[in-house]
TrEMBL record:
<feature type="domain" description="HTH luxR-type">
    <location>
        <begin position="155"/>
        <end position="220"/>
    </location>
</feature>
<feature type="modified residue" description="4-aspartylphosphate">
    <location>
        <position position="55"/>
    </location>
</feature>
<keyword id="KW-0805">Transcription regulation</keyword>
<dbReference type="GO" id="GO:0006355">
    <property type="term" value="P:regulation of DNA-templated transcription"/>
</dbReference>
<dbReference type="InterPro" id="IPR011006">
    <property type="entry name" value="CheY-like_superfamily"/>
</dbReference>
<dbReference type="GO" id="GO:0000160">
    <property type="term" value="P:phosphorelay signal transduction system"/>
</dbReference>
<keyword id="KW-0804">Transcription</keyword>
<dbReference type="Pfam" id="PF00072">
    <property type="entry name" value="Response_reg"/>
</dbReference>
<dbReference type="InterPro" id="IPR001789">
    <property type="entry name" value="Sig_transdc_resp-reg_receiver"/>
</dbReference>
<keyword id="KW-0238">DNA-binding</keyword>
<dbReference type="InterPro" id="IPR000792">
    <property type="entry name" value="Tscrpt_reg_LuxR_C"/>
</dbReference>
<feature type="domain" description="Response regulatory">
    <location>
        <begin position="4"/>
        <end position="122"/>
    </location>
</feature>
<keyword id="KW-0597">Phosphoprotein</keyword>
<dbReference type="GO" id="GO:0003677">
    <property type="term" value="F:DNA binding"/>
</dbReference>
<dbReference type="InterPro" id="IPR016032">
    <property type="entry name" value="Sig_transdc_resp-reg_C-effctor"/>
</dbReference>
<dbReference type="InterPro" id="IPR039420">
    <property type="entry name" value="WalR-like"/>
</dbReference>
<dbReference type="Pfam" id="PF00196">
    <property type="entry name" value="GerE"/>
</dbReference>
Length: 227
């Protein structure tokens, strides 16, 4: 199937560059361009995009608000948002992940990294390096007072619904490990790991793997560590 991609960025030149790159691939096509968040949400619905490349800072409705609207719309449950950012460490990126984005990608990334990100997001996985996403989330959550009541009680309670093995897998996912790496550690098959991950996502209400990482930290199951 062809991956339908929507480009949301207020810089027309950047959108044009992304369009040429994406349209050059046989398995994906650009179905629309948006210059602000509100237009991105509208076009995502109209064009039935699979993946939205979303800039954070745009006039009017920004990328963060647009990501929240897309992730909150049941009709767009299968849409994946890839946050594009100029800054590798940016609080808005973490907020976007919390809002439902599948991950983030620096605007200075290589073309192949962008294409891989689109395919990875369309497949429902966390973007590129899970460890990079994990490290970013941990860095910001570590700045919060762990005793300030920032944890989500509801999510903490939902952890009780996980089996011991599902909790174990969740901790490893939050540690940035791939399914293959987790399978090797636990001496099970990658398919078994994928089953545990999918069950944990269903029980915790996570859209994808990146959201699982956020939940693991916000619920207190995994404590942030800054090296």
């Amino acid at each position: 199937m062809t991956i339908r991609v929507l480009l949301a960025d207020d810089q027309a030149l950047l959108r044009s560059a992304f369009r040429v790159l994406v349209d050059s691939e046989p398995d994906m096509e650009v179905v629309g361009e948006a210059s602000d968040g509100a237009e991105a949400v509208r076009m995502t619905k109209e064009q039935r995009a699979d993946v939205v490349l979303m800039d954070i800072r745009m006039p009017g409705t920004d990328g963060l608000a647009a990501t929240r609207m897309i992730s909150a719309d049941p009709e767009l449950a299968d849409v994946r948002v890839v946050i594009l950012t100029t800054f590798e460490v940016d609080d808005y990126v973490v907020q976007s992940l919390r809002a439902g984005a599948s991950g983030f990608l620096g605007k200075g990334s290589e073309p192949e990294e962008l294409l891989t990100a689109i395919r990875t997001a369309a497949g429902g996985q966390a973007l590129l390096s899970p460890a990079a996403t994990t490290g970013l989330i941990a860095r910001f959550l570590a700045q919060e007072d762990p005793d300030a009541g920032d944890r989500d009680p509801a999510r903490g309670e939902r952890l009780d619904s996980l089996t011991g093995r599902e909790r174990e897998v969740l901790v490893l996912v939050a540690g940035g490990h791939s399914n293959d790496e987790i399978a090797e550690r636990l001496e099970v098959s990658p398919l078994t790991v994928k089953t545990h991950v999918n069950r944990a996502m269903a029980k915790l209400g996570a859209r994808d793997r990146a959201q699982l990482v956020v939940i693991a930290y916000e619920s207190g199951l995994v404590r942030p560590r800054v090296e």
